Amino acid sequence: MKNTVKDNALFTVVRIWHSMIVTVFVVTLTACGEVDENDGTVINSIELPTDSALTLYCPDAGIGGESCILNDPDNPYATTSVNDLNKFELSDAAPSAKARFYLWATAQAMSPRGENQFYVGGALQDMYGDSGSDLAREQALRAYRSVLDNYYYSVTFFEATWVGGDEIFYPFPLRKLVGQNMHSPSAPLTSLFDNPAEALQQFGLWGYTYDDAVTKDFTPNF
């Protein structure tokens, strides 16, 4: 999936969640809606959450191929067509980390893949920073582990301007982004651990060794 939004930079190589300030909290989405009596245009407005209180419709919401998020009555994207063409645009328009969690969990339920799973984890980590919720922290860790266990070789694409002004899209391994977000996250992400050594220990418990000094990459211990 090509992430074509111009300001999708990395914190070194991690997507900046707060790259734009969104002041409109009602976003038009593709879904069934009312018809404007003046011109027959279908108008669809769904109010997106702006709070940081996480509740899970089922324990595995947003993880792997679990699709229960599509039945969650609190999910504003449940009846929205979330796909590879619009998911980054919808993410940038989301007014809160909670809204982004619902968005990416919906994308993951509709199309399980590493890219969607990673951004579920990023939204939950961001949500943890907003609320201090242990539930958000634990679910973020589960999402990141799912990237390593289920989508180890998956990549996401970032935009760069080549010498001469040409724009290119280059792939970057999602596992490396997981390593950075867990071991040495950059602002505005809040660390999931009190110190980086705890992240290394967690990787070991999951069955991975993380080289934090040179390659910033994982080696499976199995």
How much helix, percentage-wise, in residues?
25-40%
Overall shape: globular
Q: What is the mean pLDDT?
A: 84
Question: DSSP helix count?
Answer: 6
Can you summarize the main beta sheet?
A: 2 strands, antiparallel
Alpha-carbon distance between the two ends: 30 Å
Structural class: alpha+beta
Number of distinct beta strands: 8
Radius of gyration: 18 Å
Could you give the order of strands across the largest sheet? 1-4
Number of structural units classed as domains = 1
Question: Overview of this structure, please?
Answer:
- By secondary structure, the protein is α+β, with helices and mostly antiparallel strands.
- It has one domain (26-220).
- It has helices at residues 87-93, 97-110, 114-131, 134-150, 174-183, 196-206; strands at 26-28, 34-35, 42-43, 45-47, 155-161, 167-173, 208-211, 217-220.
- It has a two-stranded antiparallel ribbon with strand order 1-4.
- Strand 5 (155-161) and strand 6 form a beta hairpin.
- Helix 1 packs antiparallel against helix 2, helix 2 runs antiparallel to helix 3 (114-131) and helix 3 (114-131) runs parallel beside helix 5 (174-183).
